[in-house]
Sequence to fold (369 residues):
Amino acid sequence: MIYLDNGATSLRKPPQVRYAVADAMTRCANPGRGGYGAAMAAAQTVYRCREAAAQLFDCDAEQVAFTSNCTHSLNIAIRTLVRPGAKVVVSGFEHNAVTRPLHALDAHLLVAGRKLFDWADTLESFEAALKTGVQAAIFTHVSNVFGYILPVERMAAMCRERGIPFIIDAAQSAGTLRVSLRSLGADFIAMPGHKGLLGPQGTGVLLCGRQPEPLLMGGTGSDSLNQKMPDFLPDRVEAGTVNVPGIAGLHAGLRYLNSVGTDRIHRNECIQARQCAEGLKKLGMRVFSGAHQAGTVSFIPGGDCEEAASVLARQGIAVRAGIHCAPLAHESAGTLETGTVRFSFGFDASPEQARRLLRAASKLPPFES
Fold:
């Protein structure tokens, strides 16, 4: 199978990831719940992962909180910054993991920047929204549907200049693009462990630039006499037993990234994505590509997108079709009624994957406007 759905999860992972998971399941007990060898091994495993994440994301180890996924991380961050009914600015390409928690809080949303691959539009619209008295800003680093890399450094600077707290959704950028908590100055940066970071499903990270409000309450192995959650990180948002085998696997993925370099992975993904985008255009598909694009591309063939994905799947090509849990992004791009077929390269991107995709796509009918 040619796996091109890394925007959903990195199915292919370095072998050391699964070895680390298996080792933790046989060697590690519950971290912070005992002084014996197996408990200490668990605590050391978790802390080493924090250190590796801190190295990659330019922060202190204590600012790295482990969650179950990026959605979990975003919910903690949003519940910390956004009060019910607050005015919040978001980009035009947000995932439901951002918009649904905001709707649950009855937040008043200002959508800034609707044009794909257009930094000028994104920045102009975002700046205008910030001037209206918003209480918080939330924006994705990379669109999960179209691979559009937003100008987050400049957006972050605008927020800092106005003293507006902000959250960055790094679900599609962590592990491929530079993400620095220190230089961005974000209040929170949320990310999954199972995509670009090459860890197992059920792992997530929340980088905390400020004290978060707990989403869950319970045991932390620390400050046990206190009936409130601890007031220090990361314990404040890590109630209950963390996913030690998953974190061990995530640590192995982070070590791989720190050794190989995210710039190299990003460059390789983008080369293959651009070649596929050009090839699909020649086949008559409607392709969404442009400047500031990562290794994810959406296209529309003739006929139904879901059926097109099934045709590709029967030829051994794994892609995703539909709305991709991001109706706001499709609304911005004008594809809400049709959805798209999306392919997203991973750390193992290769010319052979690109050739196989284009060969299979040649059997799809061309797009008819």
Notes: The longest strand covers residues 87-91.
